[in-house]
């Protein structure tokens, strides 16, 4: 089968034939229909996070189960699934206390790019190939642990709902689960890519007053379509000045989706006393945040989220239903569709800010 392999940090992906092993105990083989192109992949591909090479990136996949390994009870061939950027072991203190995005299995998987337990099922001849996020979705098929997948209804288009595997759930969850914004409260969303736009949709569905901030007018106009009440182009206007002009004070909540430490500091300055900033973007491994310490005396809080603090088997099927009934039009986030052999173009377009979200259709 074909996969996009990264052999060297900062170099283009190589699209080539690789071998995929049969699923082992508690693993499933999924034929992918589509995979979203997410900025976190680029982070690893450019070396902002350490990672053993070579690896196949791609972590917003959706497809159909083709085979199941021994002891798999939750899936059967023919099931439609969304693959998850974070695994939920179901046994650790975090999984058992309703915080599965903090699952203890995640860090080793993210650092080593293997399946749980350290194995890989991908190789080219004698050369083992790693699975970024324990997945490797820029490929025609994947073998993953069954805890890396959620079953969904069969009438949902896989080439749209694949985005729920990472970016869209992160944005929706950051707004709905983490801030728990209430009707009439204000929320400022910094960054209007796929995650930011999903945060706009989530906040809007909760009845919030939404301020969208970006440096591109095209993305801000789109944010209005997704429900933003106010837009601020930060290349022309300072949100720290503009938000109090709009609201009379700082925002009740802010969400930063870029993972840029300067934007994080700016967003922290834009919330009111007692306000909450949620970092939903992924900063580089060595980044440090500098904010005026005195602001914490005003009861301001800063936290971060992985995958929107969702409980995937519960929240993802629910988000799929809300997409199917039109509440969350996540298909409108997809501005371009590429083939697997065009994947390097897809990343270039993302870096230039030409797309909200693009997908690779297998
Ligand atoms: Cu992602």
Sheet of most strands: 7 strands, mixed
The small-molecule ligands in this entry are: copper (II) ion
Beta-strand portion reads 25-35%
- State Rg: 20 Å
Helix content: 25-40%
What is the number of domains?
2
Number of separate strands? 19
SS-based structural class? alpha/beta
Looking at the structure, the CATH topology of the largest domain is Quinone Oxidoreductase, Chain A, domain 1
CATH class (first level) name of the largest domain: Alpha Beta
Distance between the termini: 11 Å
Name of the CATH architecture of the largest domain: Alpha-Beta Complex
Q: Helices and strands, in N-to-C order?
A: EEEEHEEEHHEEEEHHEHEHEHEHEEHEHE
Low-confidence stretches: none
- CATH level-4 homologous superfamily of the largest domain: Medium-chain alcohol dehydrogenases, catalytic domain
Output the keywords:
362 residues, alpha/beta, Quinone Oxidoreductase, Chain A, domain 1, 2 domains, six-stranded parallel beta sheet, 19 strands, globular, binds copper (II) ion
Could you give the topology of this structure?
Blueprint: E1 2-5, E2 14-17, E3 19-20, E4 27-37, H1 39-45, E5 55-56, E6 61-68, E7 80-83, H2 93-96, H3 106-112, E8 122-124, E9 127-131, E10 141-145, E11 149-152, H4 158-161, H5 167-179, E12 186-190, H6 194-205, E13 209-214, H7 217-225, E14 230-233, H8 239-247, E15 251-256, H9 261-269, E16 271-279, E17 301-304, H10 312-324, E18 334-339, H11 343-351, E19 357-361
Parallel strand pairs: 5-9, 12-13, 12-15, 13-14, 15-16, 16-17, 18-19
Antiparallel strand pairs: 1-2, 3-8, 4-6, 4-10, 4-19, 6-7, 7-11, 8-9
Bound molecules: copper (II) ion (CU).
